[in-house]
Amino acid sequence: MLRVGMLTSGGDCQSLNATMRGVAKTLYNSGKDVEIIGFIEGYKGLMYNNYKVMKPGDFSGILTEGGTILGTSRQPFKLMRVPDAEGRDKVEEMKKTYARLKLDCLVVLGGNGSQKTSNLLSEEGLNVVGLPKTIDNDLWGTDMTFGFQSAVNIATNAIDCIHTTAASHGRVFIVEVMGHKVGWLTLHAGIAGGADIILLPEIPYDIEKVVKALEKRNKEGKRFSIIAVAEGAISKEDSELTKKELKKKNLNRVYPSVSYEIGAQIQEMTGQEVRVTVPGHMQRGGEPCAYDRVLSTRLGAAAANLILKKQFGYMVGLRDQDIVPVPLSEVAGKLKSVDPESSIIKEAKSLGICFGD
Amino acid sequence: MLRVGMLTSGGDCQSLNATMRGVAKTLYNSGKDVEIIGFIEGYKGLMYNNYKVMKPGDFSGILTEGGTILGTSRQPFKLMRVPDAEGRDKVEEMKKTYARLKLDCLVVLGGNGSQKTSNLLSEEGLNVVGLPKTIDNDLWGTDMTFGFQSAVNIATNAIDCIHTTAASHGRVFIVEVMGHKVGWLTLHAGIAGGADIILLPEIPYDIEKVVKALEKRNKEGKRFSIIAVAEGAISKEDSELTKKELKKKNLNRVYPSVSYEIGAQIQEMTGQEVRVTVPGHMQRGGEPCAYDRVLSTRLGAAAANLILKKQFGYMVGLRDQDIVPVPLSEVAGKLKSVDPESSIIKEAKSLGICFGD
Amino acid sequence: MLRVGMLTSGGDCQSLNATMRGVAKTLYNSGKDVEIIGFIEGYKGLMYNNYKVMKPGDFSGILTEGGTILGTSRQPFKLMRVPDAEGRDKVEEMKKTYARLKLDCLVVLGGNGSQKTSNLLSEEGLNVVGLPKTIDNDLWGTDMTFGFQSAVNIATNAIDCIHTTAASHGRVFIVEVMGHKVGWLTLHAGIAGGADIILLPEIPYDIEKVVKALEKRNKEGKRFSIIAVAEGAISKEDSELTKKELKKKNLNRVYPSVSYEIGAQIQEMTGQEVRVTVPGHMQRGGEPCAYDRVLSTRLGAAAANLILKKQFGYMVGLRDQDIVPVPLSEVAGKLKSVDPESSIIKEAKSLGICFGD
Amino acid sequence: MLRVGMLTSGGDCQSLNATMRGVAKTLYNSGKDVEIIGFIEGYKGLMYNNYKVMKPGDFSGILTEGGTILGTSRQPFKLMRVPDAEGRDKVEEMKKTYARLKLDCLVVLGGNGSQKTSNLLSEEGLNVVGLPKTIDNDLWGTDMTFGFQSAVNIATNAIDCIHTTAASHGRVFIVEVMGHKVGWLTLHAGIAGGADIILLPEIPYDIEKVVKALEKRNKEGKRFSIIAVAEGAISKEDSELTKKELKKKNLNRVYPSVSYEIGAQIQEMTGQEVRVTVPGHMQRGGEPCAYDRVLSTRLGAAAANLILKKQFGYMVGLRDQDIVPVPLSEVAGKLKSVDPESSIIKEAKSLGICFGD
């Protein structure tokens, strides 16, 4: 009997169920005697011994369903390599549950923080396999995370909708896209949606440059402009502050988010009417797109195959066209961000997209 | 030579182009010698003599395109039956353009305010035909306005996306839907999206009732709840204030919109985490849905047929299954709002949806 | 204890689950003690005593799911007002199951044939409530059936996809739309998709007129044409045959469907390349659209309210904006087809759409 | 003055316009004096001197539009390395047009056959840059062609629609997916749609194995099965025939396509009802998806940058995350097909998907 624990951790995304289905169908199809234990609401379930024994039928019909049938919650600790006392207690609780349920391994679907924890558990001796979940595409070790392309579709659709209304009214429209520290989602949705200006956390913007780009469009007779702004976009000025200085400055901010601040600045500097739209949590939800379903199914199957071969301590990732194992120790704590010198940024710039730098 | 002026007025919506195509194709197909003059940015174009002479090709391929190829702007005046001096000047300018271009009639695609103006122009002696445009579905004289069903689709999709993420995280989610004075859009999207609570301008809410409904769901073991809130939703308390008192109270409001206020109240009263999503202008944009394309094409054809029969002073509307002319004088200044005693509200209530009353 | 049987009969469609959810939620929400019995695969389940006792949870999360959680099958007999011996036996079996399960009533989601049967059962003394299911929109007694608008969306999307490829290649494209006896689906999808020619069962076509319409487009320099053809479209010639003569002629037909025959004729008569696309069963499947979800929820709630008031022998239908009960005896055996003299056909013709007559 | 010719060749696909926009915007944005000549209907336009001089405005608003604003046609010759007399004449005509218009280079958006021709023209001394267009994803030298992911979405959506109806009726459904020689589209849509059986040209199928897989599902109590079949799927038996033998056998085939033949065989061998759906040309049409828009924009920009750097004789392709130039001579005449031993096939098999081998 192979006993496999499974959990989904952190913010949800569109293809979690498809991925779990991939793992489960492959395990069940292996001919081995398999029992899958699903932990409720992520690491919490592992910590507090809250789980249910899954049946094959639980994984039927979920390929196209958004969300997660297991529920999820924020990952449990601001992880440090040497956890503090409270952190240690949590780890011990998780190890106890793992032992009590006689698990052969634990499958963790999670993003950056969650995979740091899965690496910690691996170092503590648990058999762990990780799966790269996030709409942010910021996980090191994989070309693509599942959830990303589905989120790109939603953010792009938001820009498409705004496009027609911006054109009809001749206004500047800002669409705020998710992504606190990385700009992948904004970059892809911005290009796909035909945004004129794209502002990313990785490329601090100069509001003067943004305004100049808008004025250039006006001069060319273009009646409207679309700006895709990442939640985590930052001005050049702010990017040069120390963490402490920035924190202090943020306390005095009056706008609900950076997009509103940028909008107000543009309105003041140009006199043009500016509107801000924030699709927000919509970007995590709804059905996974075909791309994500294929990726998730493949990743899930590959994770199951690692388990069947008793290869633990890896996350599976897409590299080139293949699914490959990547040591969790290499994944943990690294962020894959947009390189301002990368091919895609250069192409976008040569096309005339302004990044505010 | 039949000379037809055309303009789109007020907030844009998804099926304006499809409607204009319906008018134009029918006029061109009549065998008469027809020239269509498109005014740029709504009544502004009529006022400031800003227009372009349209060609049949201009109306090709626009059936599926959102926005308006003519551009639009807010309708020009807070309309009063007896316009003030400034208003009179504007009216005179519009009449002059109409005369200068030797128009046989003017086609106005617009919502409530815009059709009040078109009625005024009709009373001033212009030959006017109106077309019922609005995502709000609040025009008197038609069962359905074009734009409404497309907006319902987008707002419903927003709720669908939020649904999966709400379920995964076990949270209360508020989706704010467009509609300042009427709740049609929120009502339909709320029912279509399976919202548990729907708050409309027409049915002032009691926050205690809302909280009670949430607690009932918690007791039943449901981990999450969805609330669809119209932009113009109002509490019972506020609905009993005079206009003046309300204005004063609004000055002191700290939340960007009623949804955030409701969210904060719920969070405080229940301790549950609440998230607010505002799809905003997205609801006006993107492709018209099939329903709207059929409705718009029919309305456009019917408007053209009125013109060909020289029947002016009407808006065309859907009544039962037929497109019928409705005197502009009957349309002007009336609002079609949701009747709290209507069939649809009773059905929704019997299903268990809470309206906060 | 209120004991309610429920079944879905005939070809499936998109909003069956949403409708059953509407019935169930309203019954459960009534405060009465309710048990719902779901018959498996339509009338078969009632005949062969194949059912499951439903729980509230079974109706959770199915608002957006296509298909039917109960399964369906063709309705059991070519119904005659005076059933033959075999038919009588089936009826007796159904009555026995109904009695054995001590049902207070039976809810039937079905189209034309299925509602004839439900009327028969009603005449036999069972308490029946019907719900108007069909993508064909051909049920008498309701302005709209659920499933129709979802199917219109899919057929329209098919035409949209074909549109771009037709335009790129300058070809004639035929899209075959479902509907054997009635043309509602083809008519609506054809208008929504901007088809140049629409062929319906209700308006027999003259191939010469079709070819003339194509040639007119060619002369106007339009490089492509789209023809929406109902499965049941019929030539003038064939429409004048007796049933027997037509049957004989059909035996010798070489084409898989009328669209292919029309395509071959056009190709021969004009020399233009013609392509045929048949979206087929896709039109019944996938998620219900927002319109259908609202309609289904309302119809379901209204049906439940009839049950709670012990009013049986009705189908619920949409009339104007209200959901109203219609006696099953009035619904049974009538077909709601497209009137060639109706408002919508006249509008479409004035726009220039050719119906081949 | 930089004079750039551009054409789209072969079957159309969803992202042709987005790609041309990418090329054009980058060229116009370069600061150089650029004139773009668009050839009408592919190589035909180049051969017969049929073209239009493009303006920047022609490339506005086409990012989201399917089809091609230039029109397309089959590529002109069954290409051989040493063209015959007629072929030579065509080549000479194309060279004449190129010279007459004083082009600095020619941009060719096309698939396998079209890039063979573009390589030929390159060898003849023209400055050519190729862009990898095809829904088949079978072009050598790029990880992904534009059009592919959009087509995957449509084919997947077809399977999704069929899924609900298959489940409701308990039937076997076959969805025939495009792809004559390669199975990429069927493979991806099949996995994304949750197909139980996938039949590809690259993996000849044994009908007995297919039937066995269906029977296994029946035994497990699964009421329905979905089979994704590539247009070019071939039985083991047929795959062992010589070309001549196969041609002869094909002459006697009674079914319109391999899917219908497989359907008939299954129906005969198992007694189960089988339905076939053929989305057909829909798969080439409609809006490009976000993925394709990003890919197309990047490829277009990269192609323009090659032109600006006067690097000719290349196709641009996606390799890993970068857009790279690939010599046309390497691309020409090679087919990228699905490797039966590849990672993705192994993953799909381990999941339990049957490939009939």
Structure description:
The structure is a homotetramer of 357-residue chains. Chain A is α/β, with parallel strands linked by helices. Chain A has two domains: 2-147 and 288-331, Rossmann fold (3-Layer(aba) Sandwich), CATH 3.40.50.450; 149-284 and 340-351, Phosphofructokinase domain (Rossmann fold). Helices cover 42% and strands 17% of the residues of chain A. The first copy, chain A, contains 13 helices and twelve strands. The first copy, chain A, has helices at 16-29, 43-47, 85-100, 112-123, 148-169, 184-192, 207-219, 236-239, 243-251, 258-270, 290-308, 328-331, 343-351, and strands at 2-8, 34-39, 51-53, 105-110, 128-134, 146-147, 172-177, 197-199, 225-230, 274-277, 314-319, 322-327. In chain A, strands 1, 2, 3, 4, 5, 6, 11 and 12 form an eight-stranded mixed beta sheet that branches. A four-stranded parallel beta sheet of chain A has the order 8-9-7-10, with helices on both faces. Chain A is elongated. At the A-B interface, helix 5 and strand 10 of A face helix 5 and strand 10 of B.
Largest interface, C-beta within 8 A: A-D, 45 and 44 residues
Give the mean pLDDT of chain A: 95
Number of domains of chain A: 2
Low-pLDDT windows of residues of chain A:
none
Q: What's the helix-strand series of chain A?
A: EHEHEHEHEEHEHEHEHHHEHEEHH
Rg of Cα set of chain A = 22 Å
- Helix fraction of chain A, binned, reads 40-55%
CATH architectural designation of the largest domain in chain A: 3-Layer(aba) Sandwich
Q: Report the CATH C-level class of the largest domain in chain A.
A: Alpha Beta
The N- and C-terminal alpha carbons of chain A lie at a distance of: 58 Å
